Amino acid sequence: MTNTPLPFVDLKAQYARLRPSIDARIRKVLEHGQYVLGPEVDELEAALAAFAGARDAIAVASGTEALRMPLMAEGIGAGDAVFLPGFTFPATAEVVVSLGAAPVFVDVEEATYNIDPAALEAAITRIKREGKLRPRAVMPVDLFGLPADYAAIHAISQRHALFVLADAAQSFGGALGNRRVGTLAPVTATSFFPAKPLGAYGEGGAVFTDDPGRAKILRSIRMHGAGEDRYEIVRIGTNGRLDTLQAAVLLAKLEVFADELQARERWASLYDRHLAGRAVVLPARQTGAFSAWAQYCVRVAGRDAVRAKLAGQGIPTAIYYPKPLHFQPAYQAYGQGAGSLPVAEKICNEIMALPMHPYLDEGTIARIAAAVLAAAE
Ligand SMILES: Cc1ncc(COP(=O)(O)O)c(C=O)c1O
Description:
Blueprint: H1 11-32, H2 39-52, E1 56-60, H3 63-73, E2 80-85, H4 91-98, E3 102-106, H5 117-130, E4 134-138, H6 150-159, E5 163-167, E6 175-176, E7 179-180, E8 187-191, E9 205-209, H7 212-222, H8 244-254, H9 257-275, E10 280-281, E11 289-290, E12 296-300, H10 303-312, H11 342-350, E13 351-354, H12 362-376
Parallel strand pairs: 2-3, 2-4, 4-5, 5-8
Antiparallel strand pairs: 1-9, 6-7, 6-11, 8-9, 10-12, 12-13
Pyridoxal-5'-phosphate binds next to helix 3 and helix 4.
């Protein structure tokens, strides 16, 4: 068996496919010279909104800004509680703390790794009973590309008058039934970090909403809070702008994005077939839910030894995430200590991401799966 090192994400193969289009679009930007919020940004916003089926897409500087700006627009700050899963990338909680509000960590479902609606309800009840913080918002995260249980989350958010901001950094391209990510919550944030399913060649993100009033406020926040006249500052904003070169790259990649999503689904199904019924726990499959497959993660006992064996055969893996947020030194103070999020705490010890990108092939999947099974059994 070959030990040739494999890439975890193969951006070179993607560039080989898209080179003429990416190069031409970049050259066009170099020629017109409008490097920030240039014409490609408008074109990208229209294309993203059309792809998602949302009324508006606002292109921004990063996924983190895409999460922070809607919270600013909602006026969330000191004294407010924002509920989010304890098993996520730190940015989900970071934006909350950066505005002076408090993240409340909620446990996840063992099957999907997404926020557990029953645990969310319990956390809201606890915060109300304690009476120190105002429950204001919930941020479901579509972990690894799989949309969260938005039907259950909306029912809870309506009962408690909470704003729902979807952290879809990993799930752009996913869907629930015939509704694409971008339309599953009143406001949705995604990331165009290079390794994401739709990735730029630098930082980028977008916010989706069907509410024109919100979209207008978000565009103002993106430009330091400018009003109709850009030198009239009507609210506190930030520099949330996307640069035009990133928009140009994203436009080229959008042309093949639907095809790439299908390829991700094909490779995920093939991993499933090779690994089913064996020593690993597979990612959840739910009727009507389409994952963007940002990651293909399995759970395995003795994970660290398995990873070491795979690394020895040139197979890279990654751990998303090694610790739940309430175990991270910077976020401990917002949590309830060990044992408070039992599912998240357990998953962190077992989870392992395998190489996932559209440019895999059947032989490579077979090689990786065989190595995982040999290492795990
Ligand atoms: C769940 C989640 N939220 C937020 C972010 C932040 O996105 P960015 O890195 O584009 O700021 C990421 C990606 O890194 C993420 O995976």
